[in-house]
Amino acid sequence: MGDAVRGWGVNWIAIDEWLFPPRRYPISSSPDLIIPRPPYLLIPLTPLRWSKTTKMIELISRRFWQFFTPNGSRQGKRKPWRFYGAILFAVGLIVANLLNPQASVAATPRHYTDLEFPPLPELQLPDYTRFQLDNGLTVYLVEDRELPLISGSALVRVGSRFEPGDKVGLARLTGAVMRAGGTQKHPSDELNRILEQKAASVETSIGTTSGRVSFNALSEDLNEVLDLFVEVLREPAFAEDKLDVAKTQMRGNIARRNDDPGSIADREFQKLIYGATSPYARTTEYQTLNNISRDDLVAFYDRFFYPDRTILGIVGDFDTNAVKDLISEKLGNWQPSSELLPDLPEVSQAYPSGIFFVDRPQLTQSYVELGHLGGLRDSPDYATLGVMNNVLSGFGGRLFNEVRSRQGLAYSVYAYWSAQYDYPGMFVAGGQTRSEATVPFIESIRAEIDRIRTEPISEDDLKFAKDSTLNSFIFNFADPAQTLSRLVRYDYYGYPEDFIFKYQAGVEATSIEDVQRVAKTYLDPDSIVTLVVGNSEAIDPPLSNLSPDTEITSIDITIPEPS
Prior knowledge:
It is a single chain. The chain is 40% helix and 16% strand. The protein is of the alpha+beta class and 563 residues long. It has a six-stranded mixed β-sheet, sandwiched between helices. It has a six-stranded mixed β-sheet with strand order 12-13-11-14-10-15, with helices on both faces.
């Protein structure tokens, strides 16, 4: 997707990257200037037109890509008249926007305190159909006739938390090679060619708690693309050469994993909270990659990919009854599993507290993370904890105002209660600061955590936090595809269908007393683990000043070579 640029009171979007994927041009990030670098195609957009226009550009880009691809038409021949027609359509869109600017383009800029906004729209679920095939496959369908596009995604009950400890990386490799390795009917190169000709895509991945197989297509190509999607989902070939490529790429990631101090902090902090061998924190090593063969990928796939462990969601320009018949035809004979899923890994905090340090002598600033084990999203206090987040963090939050703005101790500072769906998340606070300010920075964050636990917040703090939470929450449901994704995810983790509305109502009902109660209940200063990635010689005063009776534990991040 092209980068969005602001200039002269109008939103602009550069769509050269969509139309011509092989060619990429950087765009100035200046708010007042667009540096002319050929060849750009810029379309002016107003905020109210953003969603619809970006969808239209996506459709145009798909059409263009069809015509620029050799043998791109359905009959295997180019159709120049359609190509020029698409160009004329794009030009017409540009001219229409230029000749009909919104009032905001010419209006005199006003101070932000003078701006008036309408109330948030009422949150509504789109009309959807949910059904289940005899083999256990659950399906959600949402019609959206705005543009002739269809997308779908299958969420599969699998994840890296189920891979053996001596083969860390197996799930990620399986997710990558499912698509990259082609299918039993279509080798990888042929599959790529067919999808490119149709301006379509099929993608796969496996994360910590789930796997995903998705597709995007023009509605006129649904039948053919759905066939390829089903092949990738049910008949992956796991080609040996593509596995070798994927393993080489992962080895490169291992070799570079200590290049970014922020990534070091994130990775090592998770190990301190969950434990280095926990499925929620362990890392892929050269040796674990060497232990993985193609047979392991096939066995891992065969263990988890079944219809009764899959939820499929499709949204776009289609007739519901026709797609129901299509899904029954193509996936109805997929056989369900005969085994139970393994139990979820146990979770407990690995270190009850402590101060840990990663020495990086080349750094001139420190990367800090501190916190402890968190909770689940189905907690009755989840909505209130979201409000507490926004009291502490974000622009206008206490950490930003006090630690960054007033004390000048941070380049960035944050705190959040990060709950997960089916295993405990983390409470994390931290940021980046200059080396000599490391200790005062940590002390200031701890002081703000203590303050929100022991002192009631103000009415202004509460209003700001609730407004921030609700205003950002509504954008998670800006279009039917986003809402469908939420519905599928809630179903996957066993959350109620009205979870969206309960969360919103919980935020609106939150009081000053509620915020102090959850802060005192869920934030535990005695369980806080502190991690610093920085230059030991430049940190002055030293970290020992934080707690004279606590030993500073050094962490070795040397990448182990394979045995």
